[in-house]
Amino acid sequence: HPDFAKAPSGEVYDAYRGFRSNHIHMSVAVSAPHDRDWSLSNLKPSSNYNALHLTPRFFSHFFDWWKMFSGIMSLPIRQGPLWGVTQKKSKKFGRHMATLKYNLLLSPVYISHVYKHKDAEEYKGSTVSATGLKMKLDSFMLDLHQRREHFDIKDNEGNITKKTSAMRINQAQLDFIHADLRALSASIAGTSAEDIDKADEETLASLHGQAPVVDMSKFDIPDNDFDWIDMDDFVELDWILPAEADPDTRILPLGYAPRFTYFRQTDQGGMIAGDPSRTSPFGDEPTHYCVMSRKNDPRRVQAELIEHRLDTLRSQREQNERAIGEQELKLAQNVASDRAARLKLEQKLSVLQTHSAHLHRKREFLQKMLDTLAHRLEHDDPSVVPELETSEAFFEAHENSRRQESDHAEEYVHMDPAPLADYTSDFNNRFVVHNAQIKWNNSLRNIILRYIHQNSQRRGFVYYMSRRAVKFILDVLEERKKSDGMSTPTRRQSHLTQISTLSPGVDDDATIQDRIEQLLADGRAFVNADEPTERRESPTRTEGPTDHIAQEFTPLNVYHFRLIAPQVQLQSEKNPKSAVLVTAKGMQLKVVQIMDKDNVNDDVSGLVQRRITAAADSLQMFVTSTKTFSTEFFHMYSANLYGAKAGTQWPPWVPMEIMFEFQTNPYGFNRVVRRTSASLRYDKYNNLRLKYNDDVSSGETKKAKSDEESEERMDHVWLEFPEFRAVCDSAQYYAMYIIVMDLLLYNEPLEKTRGERLEKIMLASDFSDLTGAPEMVQMLQERIRQLEEIKMYFQINEKYLDRQGWKDRITMEQDLASCGDELFFMMKAITTAQQRLEDRREQANATGLLHLSMFAKEIAWHLVRDQSESLVEFQLKNASFDRTDNNDGSNYNVMEIGRINGFNLLPDALYPEIIAPFTNEARGGRELVADEKMLRVNWLMLEAIAGIPVVDYFEIDLVPLKMQVEREVAKKLFEYVFPGVGGNGFEGGGFSPFMVKNMLPTQEEEDESDPIEKASGTAGPSTPRLSTQSREIERNHTHDTTDGVGSLER
C-alpha cells in the first residue's frame, strides 16, 4: 500500500529488506507411500510394492551420468577478453548452497544386486547364470544432511596455501526394520545358434523382448513366499532376453535382523572430522521433515525386542499350562490303565512341569534385563545390553558366571560390574545390528563365493578397460629402460663395441665392469631366520587402538560395527540331520585411522596407518539334531522359523536369552563350547604414503632404517582366545567335524580354475620384455569397445532381426566374452609378474611384510560317551603360533605349546594320565622350569618354485614326554572319532580315516526319519529332556586341584 510503503528517513524503500539471504537451504524427499506414519514405532509394512534393481551396468551408467555435472562441464565457453565478451559473471547457485537435506522413505522395499555372467568356457553350453543378493525391508528410512564446511588446504610441506569450502555429509541416519537378506541364483536357458536353426517364425518373434511369463514351479523358495519373485531382477542394460523365459531360480534365506541402524555424526570432541581448521555455521536449520529421532537409541530398540520376546514367552507359558492340564486330565482318566502307559503319561507330565518352571525363570531373567535397560534410559547410562564388554582389550571370559545351581538369586543377576557397551560412541560412522540370524550351508556358500568372484571379475575388468591399465604397462617399460641405462652406461655410449670385437682396449674393461656389476646385483640376500631375542609384544589387555600414538599423529575414529546377540547357523548337506549354532552376546569391529596432523584431509598421503580391532564376547556353540528336536513339544522351543521350509521347523534357532544366560541348555540343544571370548587386532600401514620413515608409536623420525628397525613398517595381526573348552559326545563331534571339513574348507571352483590357468600363463610366458604389450592391450580395449557398440546396434534393431541376424548377434556375444577373457588374463599376468619381479628386486633388503600372532591360553577337549559318561580330556595351555611373511616370498613360522596333558576319566582307569611330561630323572626325564615350553616347532619356507613348496629349515624341540594308554581306552577313542566303524576297524583292511563316508554315525545315533518329516510331525514321537549334561560335567571337573582334570587355570 503506498501509505505504508515508505522508507525511514535517510533510506531508500526496499520491499525485500529482511527477506534476502546469501544462503540457500534445500531439501529433497521421496516417500512411498506418502501418507504413511514414518515413525520408528510403526513396524508394520505398507500394502504397496517398491523395488530397486541394481546391476553392474546400472552403476557404470549412473556414474557416467553423474560425471556430467562435474566442474569440467561448467567451464565458461567463448567468454573473456580474447573473445571480446566482457559480460558480468552471473551468480553461482552452488556457491550459495548452504545445506542440502535428503529423505528417502520406502515401505516395503525389495533391493536386488545381481550379476549375470556367461564366461568364455561356458559358451559350450546354452545357459546363462545369474548370481546376486536380494533384500526385503518392511521399512526403509534414510535421513541425510549435507552442509557447507570451510577448511584449509595445505601443500606437501604442511603450509597453508588457501582456505576453501565444500559440501560435506555431517549427519545421517539409516533404519532397516525387519531386514531379510537372501542369496539369489538362477540358471537361464540361453539362445544358441542351434536354437535359431530349429526355431520357426513364431519362436523367432518371441525373442523380440516381450514380457516373460512367470512359472512359479521353477522357483525354489523355502518358505513359499512368492512375493520375492520379480523378473526385473534379471534385466541388464545390455543383455539378450533368452528364448526360455522361466529361469530355474533359487532364493535362499541368508540372514535376518529385526533392526539395523546406521548413524553418522562428524562433530566429535569439539572438532569436525578430527580437523581443527574445519568450521561450519550451518547444520541445525529446520528446513525439512526430519526422521532422526532419539527413539532410535539402541538401548530402546533392544528393550522393545525384549518386550516382544516376553510376549512370546507369555503365550508359550499359557500353552504349556494348558498342556499340563490336559495331561493331568488324561492321567486321572487312565487310573486303571497298565503301568507302562501310566508311566509314560507321568514322564510327559514331568517334562511339561519342568518346562513351566524353566519358562518362569526365563521370564524373570528377561524382565530384569528390561528393567535394567529402562533404568539406563532414564539415567542416560550409555549401555545397550548387560555385560557386553566392548573395550578393545584382549579380554577373557568372566569366570564368575560359573555359580552353584542352588544360587538362583545370583544366577540371573547381571554378572559383571565391568564397563558396558557404550551407545554414545565417538566414531563418525556407527552400525548397529540387533539379534542377527545368519545361515550358512553348502548352497549358500556356493552362491556367495560365486557372487564375490563375479564382483572381483567386474572390478578388474573395469580397471583393465581404462587408460590407467595402459599407463601402468608404459610406466613399467619406462622404469626398465631407466634401470637398464643405469646398469650399462658405458656400453651404450661406446659405438666401437658394436663394430669391433677385436680391440682389447676400453671396451673389454667396460664389458668386464658391467658383468661384475650384474653379478654383484644378482646376489641373493638371505633372511635371518633366527627369532630376535626381544620379540614384539602383542597389545596389552588395556591397550586400545588409539593408545601410544606419537604427538605428530592424530587418531580418527572412522567406523564402529556392533552386533548385539547374533547367532550363526551352520549345516552341511553331508549331515542334514544335525546343525551347529554359534552365538555371542555381542560382537564389534572398530576402524581407527592414524592421520598426519599436517595433512588430515588427504586420505592418501595423510593416512599413516589403519588399526582394526574386533572382539566377540561370550561365544558359545550348540549342536542339535533331529533326534533331540521333537515337534510333540514344539511349543517348548523358541518358535523362530526363519529359513525353515514351509510346514516344517527344521533347522531351529536358539532363543535370544541364551546369549546372556550361560547355565542351562536351550530345549533341544546341547552346549558343546562354553562361554568364551575372542579378539583380533590388525595394524595396516598405508603403502601409498610417500613418507616411509614414520614411527607411529614413539614419534621419532628415523633418517635411515636398519633391518632390525624395519619391523616398524611391518603389518601386524594379533588373534587371541583366552579359553576354549569343548564338551561333546561322538555324534556332536562328528557334526562339528563335517562342518569344518565339508562346509568351511572349500575353494570356489571357478576361481581355482582361473588361478590354474593364470599359473600356466605365468610359466609359459616371458614377462621380462613387455615390448608391444601396451599396443596389444590398447588393441583389445578398442576391439571390445567396437563389439559393445555393435551390440548396442543389435539391441536397437532387435525387432528387425531375421534368422541370420540372431546368429550374428550370438557370435558377436561369444567374441565379446572371448576378448574380455583375453584382456583379463593378459593384464592379470602382467601385474602378477611385475609384483613378483619387484619382490625379487627387494631381496637385498628383505624385510617382513606381515606378522601374524595367534595365542590361546587354554584349550580343552572333553570327550563324553553315552549317558554323559566322561571318557578322556585333552588340554593345551599357552599355545601360540607366529608367522612372518617376507617380501621375497619366504615365511618363518614358530609354534609353541606350554603344556600338553591328557587324562583318562574312566572310573577303572589303569593309567589316569595319558599324556604328561616325563619327570623321572633316574630314567632320563627332568622337571620343567616355570616358563619352559613342552613343544616348540619352527621352520622356514622359501618361495615356491613352479608351485612346489621349498622347506629350508625345520626344527622340533620336544621335552621328555610320557604317553601311556590302555588297549580298551584306545578302542573307545577310535569308536569316538570314527563312529560306526568299531574298535577293530583297521584289522579288516580297506578303511581310511581320511574318507568322510567312513565317519557316518552309528545306527543307534542316526535318526532314520527324514528331517523334514521329523520336523513336520510325521515321525514317531519322542520325549526330549532339558539337557544339563555339559553343566554337570563342568561342575564335576572344574573344581578339582590345579594339577588334575578340568583344572584349566582361571
Automatic annotation (TrEMBL):
Residues 528-547, 1002-1050 are annotated as: Disordered. Residues 132-659 form the FMP27 WPPW motif-containing RBG unit domain. Pfam families: Hobbit. Residues 1019-1030 have a biased composition (Polar residues). Residues 303-330 form a coiled coil. Residues 532-547, 1031-1050 have a biased composition (Basic and acidic residues). It comes from the Eukaryota. Keywords: Coiled coil. PANTHER family: ANTIGEN MLAA-22-RELATED (PTHR15678), BRIDGE-LIKE LIPID TRANSFER PROTEIN FAMILY MEMBER 2 (PTHR15678:SF6). This is FMP27 WPPW motif-containing RBG unit domain-containing protein.
